[in-house]
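User: Structure please.
Assistant: Input sequence and predicted structure:
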Amino acid sequence: MAIVLKQVVSSGDMDRFLRLPHQIYSDESPWVAPLDSERKHFLDPKTNPFFDHAETEFYIALSDKGDTVGRIAAIIDHDHNRFHNESTGFFGLFECTNDSEASSLLLDAAEHWCREKGMNRLRGPMSLSINHECGLLVENFDDPPVVGIPFNPPYYGKLLEQWGLEKIKDLVSFKIQLTGIPEYLQRAISLIQKRNRFSVRTLQMDRFDQEIDVLWDIYNSAWETNWGFVPMGKKEFVFSARELKTVIDPRLCFIAEVNGEPAGFSLSLPDVNQPLKSLKGKLFPFGWLKFILGKRKINRHRVITLGVKKQFQRLGIDAFFYYAIYKQLMEINIFQVDMSWVLEDNRAIIGPIEKIGGIPYKRHRLYERTITH
């Protein structure tokens, strides 16, 4: 079968790009289709501020019969390269049939485009950056993905590695079955509260725009030393926050303050992938009703982020966040928790998660290959 590569230049090409995953994954697959409207909004340079500091090129692979058999995005994030003093190109949004010719053509195209832009390495998958969905699933293809975490068939790893990509870092997901607040944690919180060195409150939705400013300040400070981290500009952070606004439960967004200064925050989201599964990407005409009814049956949350500014990391704020999350989830009868993702070598985070009962259950991999000139 001859494969032809095509740049995405028309709305029809983009429709093919967006609909390909529906051909890759059967109804029995754990994969959850994102809303078509959300994907178009996310990938539109006119609406997503990520494109203010990035360049992208999208490709689709076509069979000799005209069927779409693969897709990829080639990405240069100038903010990443400035922050890390690198010349790194990225690939993401990768989907492909089990065909090494098609996958190689797609990866060749991404590498060639990045080479022409002066990059010296290709890294991914990142869709579109480390601040979005990233990593290739390499362990546990049975459990359904939680909101914001990618899923792919097992053969994707083989396709990438055959092309010459090698592991650079793994991202680990943990699961916790809540049965009761651990005794050691209750004792620790009792001591922390007696010291009275910080206060913790929940997100105030009626002041959402002002609260975004607080979270943005913490985010760009608390994670700045993490591997691969890229600070988010204000417009981009606001864009992401507003995308989440409709699903945020303010009772599960905790903000710590020290003498009135923002010091850390944690955010847990209901796993909206559960009601999204049956929608197959379509919110209309009746998907919205299915979603509203399905939200009532959600029985799992994802702790999407938990961080403390460096100067406040010895006050016990992180422990209080774990306690507050545990307590609030049990009060609303949620007993299944996903904590993802965590860098595989970040023992400062992995240790506390394991101590409160976290068990690693999924692993996503980031790959890299040197670009030769």
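The chain is about 35% helix and 30% strand.
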